[in-house]
Design a protein that fits this description.
This protein is an alpha/beta fold. Helix content is about 25%, strand content about 25%. It contains 10 helices and 45 strands. Strand 3 (about 40-45) and strand 4 form a beta hairpin. The two termini are about 75 Å apart. The relative contact order is 0.05.
Length: about 550
């Protein structure tokens, strides 16, 4: 078209009608030539250029490319097109697929309010200047894989009804991305953010596998499940749940794409992090995040991760269970997803049905259940608990640290490779007596039982039937008399009816109470009673200390 004579060009343009299919692949367009083409395709009723199938693949636009309000009813192909001047697609409507793969935008590009009703490709596109997608609507899958943003990129109030892929994209001049609303996944895997950046995303899922942040980053998220597997953090990065809809210019961003048919949202109204595997957590801050299903195995410096706000973990199964012939009830505590996966594997639980809600009475199987090679073992899980416990302690969260200490001891007790048999037995006794020094009710129950046994033993064999009376004997030698006073050993006489009396119970209780505070009662005891008191003075103060330690671990902050 650029090489036609004026007569031939006029004849060609005169023959065009709104909605016509055109093919100008590789054509160099000046601003005047493009405006002539757009005038020929303008619908007189709407005043907007209307295209059928539009092929501009490899075209060169040297001036102002003004496609504002244009309507593309067919396949719009701008692959490898070059825009040397301003590219204006503001309010354009793409009813069919829109292909901008490998396109080059040397100046600013405007897609404000554009509507993309089918699949949209910006793979490998290069934006050298600023680009605007404010209030754009993407109904089909949207692909920005390998795109490069050298200037600012704005997606304020943009809405994506399907998948949004930004894999391997490079954001060199972007400091703000969003607010962006996506009904499905926003995939930023392999992307690079060069400048300090703030991301505001409301979506069902955000995938940041191998994403690299070369400066500080803040990700404010609504609804989404965030996957940070193997992300590279070279500076502090924060992931925070945003409590209210995002706003821009004083106006709330619509979240209709994420709403269900009723008043409840279509996706869970909580932000979850699914994985930090392979991440250097020393730079990571998580605020108000649900970590119920988060995988920590393979992360580095977990002891330096910062957990702020209301951060939740998985709970142990509820209710009573049967193990062997006896009932079992798991202690309520914070539990890592890896422990859930290991215990579900050891219990031989079946593979869960896809989409089924987890049973709160059961351990939750992992994503690779029941493959033992891909299920963490107790030694690995104990190391995770140990590092995260240190993070809680540094954050002055003693109750949280206590739960993770309990989990660490549980995993060590079940570890048959890294923990010796003797150590496992000690841990079993520590668990049985006081729940690793963290279950006050258990310690005090054992203390009450020990005191009861002490009282019964003292009544049956430790207290004499009668206190012995001192006896004095004298010896006369010449004019001198020698007197010798002695008290016989306490003796036990009579049957059980004489021993089991309220008076003897009161004396035995006094001995037991004094033993708890490590004091001698001063009560006359038989030889057996002396040994009973010695044992109680050793055991009962220990149980009292374990109970006090458990209370301290729960209330200290």
């Amino acid at each position: 078209m650029a090489h036609l004579t004026d007569t031939d060009r006029t004849a060609y343009l005169t023959g065009l009608a709104p909605g016509a299919d055109i093919d100008h692949s590789g054509t160099p367009f000046t601003q005047e030539l493009l405006e002539a083409l757009l005038r020929a395709l303008t619908d007189p009723t709407t005043g907007k250029p209307t295209f059928g199938r539009a092929q501009f693949e490899g075209a060169q636009f040297s001036g102002f490319a003004h496609f504002s309000g244009a309507q593309f009813s067919g396949f719009a192909q701008f692959g490898e097109a070059q825009f040397s001047g301003y590219a204006q697609f503001e309010g354009a409507q793409f009813s069919g697929p829109a292909w901008f793969s490998e396109a080059r935008f040397s100046a600013s590009a405007h897609f404000d309010g554009a509507q993309f009703s089918d699949t949209t490709w910006f793979d490998g596109a290069q934006f050298s200047g600023p680009v605007w997608f404010d209030e754009a609507r993407f109904t089909g899958p949207t692909l920005f894989n390998g795109a490069q943003f050298s200037g600012p990129a704005w997606f304020r109030h943009a809405q994506i009804s399907d998948l949004a892929l930004f894999e391997n994209a490079r954001f060199e001049g972007v400091s703000v991305l969003g607010p962006l609303v996506c009904a499905e996944e926003v995939v930023l895997s392999g992307s690079v953010f060069v400048l300090p950046v703030t991301l505001e995303i409301a979506a069902a899922k955000v995938v940041c596998e191998r994403t690299r942040w070369e400066s500080t980053a803040t990700m404010r998220v609504r609804y989404a499940a965030v996957d940070l597997s193997h992300a590279v953090l070279t500076a502090p990065a924060a992931v925070a749940a945003h409590p209210t809809p995002f706003t821009h210019a004083g106006r709330a961003v619509s979240e209709d794409l994420l709403q269900g048919p009723g008043p409840q949202p279509r996706v869970p109204d909580r932000v979850r992090v699914l994985s930090v595997q392979g991440v250097d957590a020393a730079h990571l801050v998580l605020t108000d995040i649900d970590l119920t299903d988060c995988l920590f195995s393979g992360a580095f410096h977990l002891d330096q991760i910062r957990l702020e706000g209301r951060t939740t973990f998985a709970d142990a199964p509820t209710g009573w269970h049967r193990r062997g012939i006896g009932p079992l009830r798991f202690t309520r505590r914070r539990v890592l997803a890896e422990e859930h996966h290991w215990r579900a594997h050891m219990a031989g639980q079946p593979v869960p049905t896809a989409g089924a809600a987890p049973d709160p009475r059961l351990w939750r199987p992992g994503p690779h259940h029941p493959d033992p090679a891909r299920t963490p073992d107790p030694e690995d899980v104990a190391a995770l608990y140990r590092q995260l416990r240190k993070a809680f302690e540094d954050g002055k969260n003693e109750p949280g640290a206590a739960d993770f200490y309990y989990g660490e001891c549980e995993m060590r007790r079940h570890d048959t490779t890294g923990t010796t048999k003797g150590e496992r037995r000690l841990l079993w006794g520590y668990w049985l007596l006081s729940g690793y020094g963290l279950r006050a009710s258990r310690a005090f129950t054992w203390l009450l039982a020990a005191m009861t046994v002490t009282v019964l033993l003292l009544m049956g064999a430790g207290l004499p039937t009668h206190d012995p009376d001192p006896a004095t004997t004298g010896t006369l030698k010449g004019s001198r008399i020698s007197l010798d006073t002695s008290t016989p050993d306490p003796a036990l006489h009579g049957g059980w009816t004489q021993r089991m009396t309220w008076a003897r119970a009161e004396k035995a209780a006094r001995v037991a109470v004094n033993s708890v505070v490590f004091r001698s009662s001063g009560q006359n005891l038989t030889i057996a009673g002396t040994y009973i008191e010695m044992a109680s003075r050793l055991l009962e103060p220990t149980l009292l200390a374990l109970g006090a330690l458990a209370i301290r671990g729960r209330i200290k902050r």
